[in-house]
Design goal:
With 141 residues, the chain is an alpha+beta fold. It has four helices and six strands, in the order αββαββββαα. It starts with 5 loop residues before the first helix and ends in an 8-residue tail after the last helix.
Amino acid sequence: MSKIPDSVRQEVRKRANNHCEYCLSSQEYVMGILQIDHTIPVAKGGKNDTTNLCLACELCNQYKWVQIESQDLETGNIVRLFNPRLQKWSEHFTWSENGTEIRALNPCGRATVNALKLNNTLAVMVRKNWVKAGWHPPVSQ
């Protein structure tokens, strides 16, 4: 697979408004450059075009790796993970009342929260501080 051109990377970044498309963390607040993620991994036939690329923070990208599906812990079923190219965040997730945890609204959301560990200890701790600073949760999804 060839290298992703800088112009494509810039387009993905702009489309995502410099936010992780899984946990909505802003590039302004994370330590590290948000990464280009293949919604369908190259190892599973995904391409380097903008219809298959999204922006992800290091934690989300690390946990997602080559997964495209995971178990919905409520039903036990294996379901597709959230795909920001095909789905709207607010139809699958919402924020907890205090703004520190991502709550799933359906099987896809539950599987994604589980697989990407969207409410891992570090993420929740950091979000608590972002909430205190008035930076979180994001206004729009």
